[in-house]
Amino acid sequence: MAMETRSHRISPTLFALSLILCAIHVTSIGDGIGIGSNPLLLSCGDSVGGNDADGRTWLPDARYLLPGSKNVEAKADTQDPSLSSTIPYMTARIFQSEATYQFPLQDPSSRTLLRLHFYPSSYPNSNIYNSYFSVVAGGITLLNNFSASLAAEALSQAYFIKEYHLAPNQFTSLGVTFKPSDQYPSSFAFINGIEIISSPPTFVEDPILVGTDASGVDSQSASTIPIASSSMEALYRLNVGGGYISPTNDSLMRSWYDDSLYIFGGGHGVALGANITVNYRGMPSYMAPLDVYSSYRSMGAFKDVNVIANLTWTFDVDPNFMYLVRLHWCDSEMTKPNQRVFDVFVNNKTAVSEVDIYAWTGSIATPMKKDYVIHVSNRTGDDPKIWVALHPTDQTKAEFMDVLLNGLEIFKLSDPQANLAGPNPTMSDLMKRYQQGQMNPGSFQGREAFSQVTFTGAAGGAAAVGLAAVLIMAAYNRKKKSMPPADQSGPGWLPISLSSNANRTKSSIISISPDAASNCRYFSLAEVSSATNDFDESNMIGVGGFGKVYKGVLDGDTKVAIKRSNPSSEQGINEFQTEIEMLSQLRHRHLVSLIGYSEDNGEMILVYDYMGKGTLREHLYKGNQTILSWKQRLEISIGAARGLHYLHTGAKNTIIHRDVKTTNILLDDNWVAKVSDFGLSKVGAEGHGGHVSTVVKGSFGYLDPEYFRRQQLTEKSDVYSFGVVLFELLCARPALNPSLPREQVSLADWALHCARNNCVEDIMDPELKGEIRAESLKKFTSTAEKCLAENGVERPSMGDVLWCLESALQLQQQEEECHQNGGDHGGSRDVEEGAVTDDSQRLVTMHRKTLSLGDDDDDENEMGNISSKVETAVVVDDVLAPCDKKGR
Q1: How far is it between the farthest Cα atoms of the chain?
Q2: Of 52, 250, 316, 659, which one is the catalytic site residue?
Q3: Same domain, 328 and 359
Q4: Using only C-alpha atoms, what is the Rg of the chain?
Q5: Residues 245 and 179 placed together within one structural domain of the fold
Q6: CA atoms within 13 A on the CB side of 669
Q7: pTM greater than the 0.90 cutoff
Q8: Which of 51, 345, 614, 794 is the most buried (most CB within 10 A)?
């Protein structure tokens, strides 16, 4: 429901009076303070000012503040590690009453670019969770009943930026007013930093109106859309097909983000870079950095696939607003017209047909941009989103069936009531959207719970509610006594592209325990750099959530894998420290060994044993040079299970990995499997059946639904994830594949369905057809199925899983031997009694070694001496029948 904004608007009389006061005030501070082409940067609540990490100079704000308001200068109690500079975030101006800044403008005919910086930390005598306020600039309502603390919670950022492009006006100054909510006596407003830039003419051409709408927008022509007089909020700014572009590389200090979070479905296409030099060629340089036009995303070379598909991005927005969608193009491949021709759709309506970039520009590698405007309504049942889809035209009109996009920006236009503040969602709205699976993970840049978690069908609606609780419980608990009415309970959907954690502190960033320090080596940055030839890209062997992984050589001949953190990575200091603390204490043949680490100059670098065959995932899907045999897959699964079993039972305390997946199972030169990546690991609860209550973390498609639902982590959560890995080994398909029919998207759900309907053979890897013996497949499938039980108590332990996998391997070998000896190879288990005894004894020996909780070569480990007549009887039973004991 739209919120009433009139109480937060400044009346024309009061606004005119403020301008008169401003004229007097501006004169008092000097006529030369006008902004012109240079930005004015204010560090609010700071009496000195200074330079930020980028070398920009910030000034004190007091001279621009009109007298008469009740305000204080405050310094934040703590500095978040993500803050690369104390300026402008460590000081704040806190307002207990309405207050106005007044800024002189040298050119009132130009747009004003306004950025507001917020760091909702704790400040002396101010409870940040009680802060609700409005912001009005030049008569435009920017924020209404806004909670910066909730905004930060949603973004999972310590600080964030809101960016506005204000329409020109006839006044020579700009007033920016902060007003605490009048609903609560204790509420206050605050601001940490303000940027004012006289913007170049970035919005001068008439945009193209897209489609029709029941609101009556369809009656407008493109030329009547009031772009020139509309103020805007920048919501999304993407470098499509490219990486993050920092403000220092943009003439207007804008940040450009990776687009992959917003791609809908599994059709990500291919991200490429221009192979020729790109120049502006008449395009104003302030439209976008050249890096935007030098990278792009296309669908790829497979015409048969492209003709039936789209390349689609989706974005959450506020309803009942007009939006300007700006598309940036630069085709650095095509050399004549009609080679690449495609259509553009916005919200399933044709924006433009037969886009031919070469034909439009008349030359190769020539940047251009086009603007489109669409109205997003709030009709019942609609989800307020913007969908941008590109589709190749009919192949008779183009030589290549492909599309292209270099950059994308989305701006919200002010409505007829001079308002840019969207309706604030209620808690019930949030819950409903999560339950319906409508929230786009990309809507919350950097939020761990969204960047690392998804629901599976097994989790059902309760799991969705659980995730919603994870995301909002902390904020809700702290704020429930000061919560506004139901229709005003929090911030609107926030612009994700303007939050930033790209820079890190340069000081020492972790504290390593003495035990960990004594068990691993500290490397200087110079040593690591030398080992990788200064992080040469030719040595890069992988990229993960933490950052890039390089092959290196240390001490002359020791091959190592070096993982270097990406400064804008969502995985940060905590994961870095956890990895060191965990792995430095763990030594096992089936765990990747940590050799050492480096944190020189603020870097976060981990050094491991080199795993020559890479990740398990690399060897499962089509296109890989190596096809793993069934026996290899069984041996790999057994090795990984041994590593997890050691974590659960062999270490000093139970360790729950929390991120078991095929990319975290590595293979050495001898195909020995080793579990890796302990950044999310947790020490389990003491005692049998205990759990750890913790925020949900994990990876798409592998997450335990019970953990997801209850936020209670146990070792059975790893068992569930490992069950997904087992089916991935069998089926050679990803845990999630959004391009498949809905019921097949989740491998866990689809494999369970097929297992229960006795049709697993239909989804298994075709490369394995005819190779797997019937009883081995039955044992393996039964084991994987039990791992995926809805409730943790119904799942086997990792020791039981290991036992069953070894049984599956034994059955495979037994039936192969039987076949080689001329026996029945159709799955029959009519074997002689003596053979069963021999097989069971071999399994007992194998399991002794399995249960060894140190290195596998140590057969004298006390846990390896637990075999008995009872155990032998169980093994014989396992050989003769599937593993069907619940939670054994």
Answers
A1: 105
A2: 659
A3: yes
A4: 30
A5: no
A6: 4
A7: no
A8: 345
